[in-house]
Amino acid sequence: MSHTNLDPALTATEDALFRRDVLAFIQNHAPAAMNPASHAELRNLVMSYIYTSRNLEMARLLLSLHRNYGISTLIAAEHLTGATNTVNGVQSAPPITASPTTPAQNSGSDPANTPQRHMQSPRAMQFNSPPSQMRSPTGTSVYPSSPLDSSSPGQRQHTSPTGSNSSFGQTQNPLASRFNSPPDQMQARTTSFPNHPPSQLKRCFPPGLRMESDTPDRDLKWCYKCDECHHPIVHRSEFNRHARDAGRDGFRVVASNTTQRVWYGSDTPGNEYTGEMIPADERPPPPRHVGEPCQTRISQHNASKKREQASAKNKEGGN
């Protein structure tokens, strides 16, 4: 049964995003290799089904996630039952595989044959760079927000790390209600910038995420693992600085959960990020340098900062 309470144009967009993100998740996450971060991503992806049209294709996609990962604890039983009834009303749902070369079919076709020409590796999508130069993510979904343009600068991050395509500024989107945090805690995520359209901001927070941390800033029992370079960092404030130096303007960790071993962060434009937390006693020996892509960005940031300081010093000397 299709979901008709939302604007058809919006549900069509959600359908396209859900289709692409499900296929990408199945392609990039083997069931046996699931970890807390990817499980949180799966939870947010599953919840985004609610905002689709819930037609035959969407139902098949949801059931494919259920067959692969067992999602009965991640979504209300009525949605799984509804998806099963939708599929059984036509035919049994075939398994889905994600292949970048499968031919395009119409929206009611087997999801295994849906267009894949826009799918790239998540890291390539995030930085608009060749996939061979990017590391695979550890817990952050970085798929672009536009269902038709994988080179757009922003990403729509499902995952709980799971996300949503929330409403910013004057843009109307039914998913805005999925974030219930107080306004003062949402400031970093509600700022609208001309060069960061709301639809292009990356989304990865789970619905109803509480902006709170169960660890103090200087807690030495837990480390924050960077979602890009995978470098484990002990202090939250140190990790905030690491991410800002790596190109995330105004980044800060806004919530963390040691039970799920997940942190959530946001930057000034409103992009959302998530990654893994690890106990300090499981922290590997720190490498001599942080990994890519953060190392290059931090080096560029430091060089730019030194140039600015030198320029300011020269101006003072000239006066």
UniProtKB/TrEMBL annotation:
Ranges annotated as biased composition (Polar residues): 105-119, 126-140, 154-194
Biased composition, class Basic and acidic residues, residue ranges: 280-291, 305-319
Comp. bias intervals (Low complexity): 92-104, 141-153
Region spans: Disordered: 86-209, 264-319
Source organism superkingdom: Eukaryota
Protein name (Swiss-Prot/TrEMBL): Uncharacterized protein
